[in-house]
C-alpha cells in the first residue's frame, strides 16, 4: 500500500474513534441525567453529597442479595407507574385538520375519545407529548383543571 492510502485509512480510523468516543460520552451523560432524575423522584436530592455517597455505598453492598433487589424492583416499578399516572392530565384536543386513520388509531390507543357533538377529543395525557405527537395536525390543547 502506498503512504497516501495508509494515511487515509489512519484518518478514517481516527474519525471513527472520535465518533465512538462522542457516542460514549453522550450515553454516559444521558445515564447521569437519568440517575439524577431518579434521585429527584426518590425525594432525596436535598441530601448532601457525603450522605448520598454513603447511602449509595450501602445500596451497593445490599445489591448482592437477590431477594432485596427483587423487592426494590417491585417497589420501583409501582412508584414509576404511579408517577406516570400522576403526570397524566385531563385534556381536550381540537385538531386544525381532519386526522387520518393512523392518527385516529393513535388517539384511540392513547385512550382518547371522540366527542362528535363538540368535534373534539377527550382523554388523559401529558400536554407536551400530545402537542408533539400531533403537531402536524395543528392541535389546540386545553388542560381541564376541574375534572
Give a written overview of the molecule.
The protein is α+β, with helices and mostly antiparallel strands and about 150 residues long. The chain has two domains: about 5-85, no CATH class; about 90-145, no CATH class. Helices cover about 60% and strands about 15% of the residues. The protein has helices at about 5-40, 50-60, 65-85, 100-110, 125-135; strands at about 90-95, 115, 120-125, 140-145. A four-stranded antiparallel beta sheet has the order 2-3-1-4, covered by helices on one side.
What are the main properties of this structure?
single chain; about 150 residues; alpha+beta; 4-stranded antiparallel sheet; 5 helices; flat
Task: Chart the SSEs and their pairings.
Elements: H1 3-41, H2 49-62, H3 66-87, E1 89-95, H4 101-109, E2 113-115, E3 120-125, H5 127-133, E4 139-143
Antiparallel strand pairs: 1-3, 1-4, 2-3
The secondary-structure element order is HHHEHEEHE
Spatially, the strands of the biggest sheet line up as 2-3-1-4
Q: Count all strands and give the number.
A: 4
Low-confidence spans: pLDDT under 50, at least 5 residues?
none
Beta fraction of the residues?
Answer: 5-15%
Summary, kept brief:
With 147 residues, this protein is of the alpha+beta class. 62% of the residues lie in helices and 14% in strands.
Amino acid at each position: 500500500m502506498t503512504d497516501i492510502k495508509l494515511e487515509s485509512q489512519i484518518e478514517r480510523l481516527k474519525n471513527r474513534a472520535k465518533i465512538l468516543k462522542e457516542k460514549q460520552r453522550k450515553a454516559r451523560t444521558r445515564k447521569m441525567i437519568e440517575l439524577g432524575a431518579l434521585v429527584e423522584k426518590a425525594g432525596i436530592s436535598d441530601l448532601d453529597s457525603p450522605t448520598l455517597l454513603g447511602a449509595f455505598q450501602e445500596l451497593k453492598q445490599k445489591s448482592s442479595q437477590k431477594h432485596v433487589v427483587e423487592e426494590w424492583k417491585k417497589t420501583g416499578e409501582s412508584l414509576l407507574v404511579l408517577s406516570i399516572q400522576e403526570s397524566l392530565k385531563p385534556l381536550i384536543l381540537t385538531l386544525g385538520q381532519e386526522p387520518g386513520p393512523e392518527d385516529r388509531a393513535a388517539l384511540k390507543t392513547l385512550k382518547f375519545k371522540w366527542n362528535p357533538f363538540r368535534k373534539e377529543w377527550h382523554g388523559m395525557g401529558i400536554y407536551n407529548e400530545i402537542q408533539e405527537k400531533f403537531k402536524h395536525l395543528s392541535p389546540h390543547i386545553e388542560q381541564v383543571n376541574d375534572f
